[in-house]
Amino acid sequence: MLYIDPHIHMVSRTTDDYEALASSGVKAIIEPAFWQGQPRTQIGSYHDYFASLVGWERFRAAQFGIRHYCTMGLNSKEANNEALAEQVMDLLPLFLTKEGVVAVGEIGYDDQTPIEDKFFRAQLELAKEVDLPVLIHTPHRNKKQGTYRSMDVIEEHGIPAHMVVIDHNNEETYREVLDRGYWCAFTIYPGTKMGNERMVDILKVAGAERVIVDSSADWGKSDVLAVPKTAKLAAERGVPREQIELVCYRNALKAYSQSGQFTEADWLNPPPIDQRNLFEGNSVLRGGQPPRIESANDANIIR
Amino acid sequence: MTEPTAPLTRLFRSWISSRVDSTALNWIDDRAAAVSRGDKKSLFIAFGLVPRKVGKTDLTLSEVDRNAAEAARPGWSPIGWSLDQLVRTYFVLSFPSTDIESYVRTLDLMFSTGEVGELVALYQALPLLPEPKAHVLRAAEGIRNNIKAVFSAVAQNNPFPSEQFSDDQWNQLILKCLFVGMSLRPVIGVDERANAKLMGMLVDFAHERRAAHRPIPAELWRCVGPFADDRAVEDLRIALTSGSTAEKQAAALALNVSPHPKAKGILAASPDLANAIAAGEISWRTVAAAEAAN
């Protein structure tokens, strides 16, 4: 089975991780612009970070035969530095129309401060202007209220639910998100967000329509193989193959293809110029290594 | 006032008009008009949107096209270009360059925000821009870039480096090609720009590789031959007698053009190779092919 990890922060990961992704069948990844663990203090740091998401990181992924996309946005946590945030807002239009930028994100709330609200709304307007989908980061604290509030504000700004992915859902939030018509993403991230056993239980109840699984693997203790591991566990526990394919590949493809920048042909049948520029040296795929997750053991459970 | 790029923009416009539909052509003409008035925002946005408007097929050129390219810009040919790249370059060439400092600042912003495809287009446009001296540091920066496609955009099929680089800049280009395993064959000016300092750097590199038990790229010897000193000639003798097929051929070719007093004698001791050179059976093309087959 082919996989997409539609939320993963590769700037924080190593080439071992790229090898593991490639050998597990992950064909495409989306890297949302986010904070990097330590707050930035200069606009130049954002400039170079955004440039690396469409440049260097895209090349790194290409070396392993993986197609790399990204979302551009000012994250909610760093939005609280208002003077710097204003400068980031000026910078974003330069990057939002780049090839391979598939959404505005990840944006939303962290502490749910008035400043976060201001820049969240400004970026929703920006998304309308450039006609891109939106990726919403829901807060870790006061999550349920923050998730509902995010959707209220999106609706206030007149953005249709089918253009929005609400991420980091859990058992307490997903029903409302699905009922209101949004793409409902779950982050399989050990310890804090969602485990893959819980995810499989949710799938059995909620079904696969508009459900998306991702890893959000980053600089914290996280798992780059969260998507293939969840697919494997779901198969072992009786979830139909069609449903697994929807949540681990097709739904992300459909949601982000609304950008016009994300199509299966990009990795299945790329144009010659992209083969020259973006699939350099993908010998890892020709090496015939067994997929990492085929070694069945407890390491495939993420709690 | 006529822009210095006018002959090229006319050529590009004619190539574009026969390759895109009328909707795309109207969009291109409309945006190029705004860009030619010096509207930076139009340039940035149009430059980014090009693949969405015209697609990314390869640019195929007839002999007539290739001759027109040579006439418009001697030494240059758009080898390996794509249609979106052609249109992107058309926009860059349409932007006013009268104030060269301001022109370079505008390009700097495009380079510093560029995604991979944009960077390739920008670096391959360098030989077409007015005021070549104003772009030398940018081209040297491209040689430091580790995105292989971007590095290749400067190093390969691009006449800019051989025309404008200092010896030190040129030597880094050659050494990096060999270091990252890229053939020198698509590099323009390899033989013309060979120099004694580069020869020394390459022989040092060969010794490092040998000490690490790693293969020595056979094409390395191409830039060694014309300036080979005693140490280099001894290395060539070893490569000639105990190297791989590619190394033997490369050493023979290098010795054949070397003015070093021992060179001819060493080559004569391997008559098969010496005869093959005389018969035109060995060339840097066959060296690259033999190396690729390994």
Report what the structure shows.
The complex is a heterodimer of chains A (303) and B (294). Chain A has one domain: TIM Barrel. In chain A, 46% of the residues lie in helices and 14% in strands. Chain A has 14 helices and eight strands. Chain A has an eight-stranded parallel sheet, with helices on both faces. In chain A, helix 8 links the parallel strand 6 and strand 7. The longest helix of chain A has 17 residues. Chain B is built from 17 helices and no strands. The longest helix of chain B is centred in the last third of the chain and has 16 residues. Classes of the chains: A alpha/beta (303), B mainly alpha (294).
Q: Structural class of chain A, please?
A: alpha/beta
Distance between the termini of chain B: 56 Å
Largest sheet of chain A: 8 strands, parallel
Q: Nearest-angstrom radius of gyration of chain A?
A: 18 Å
- Greatest interface and its participating residue counts: A-B, 24 and 29 residues
N to C succession of SSEs of chain B: HHHHHHHHHHHHHHHHH
Enumerate how many helices of chain A there are, as a single number.
14
Which consecutive residue ranges of chain B, at least 5 long each, have pLDDT under 50?
Answer: none
> What does the oligomeric state look like here?
heterodimer
Strand order of the largest sheet of chain A: 1-2-3-4-5-6-7-8
Shape of chain B: elongated
β-strand amount of chain B: under 5%
User: Mind summarizing the main beta sheet of chain B?
Assistant: none
Chain-averaged pLDDT of chain A: 93
What is the CATH architecture annotation of chain A? Answer: Alpha-Beta Barrel
The arrangement of helices and strands of chain A along the chain is EHEHHEHHEHEHEHEHEHHHHH
Tally of structural domains of chain B: 2
Proportion of residues in helical segments of chain A: 40-55%
Key phrases:
heterodimer, A: 303 residues, alpha/beta, TIM Barrel, 14 helices, 14% strand, B: 294 residues, mainly alpha, 2 domains, 17 helices
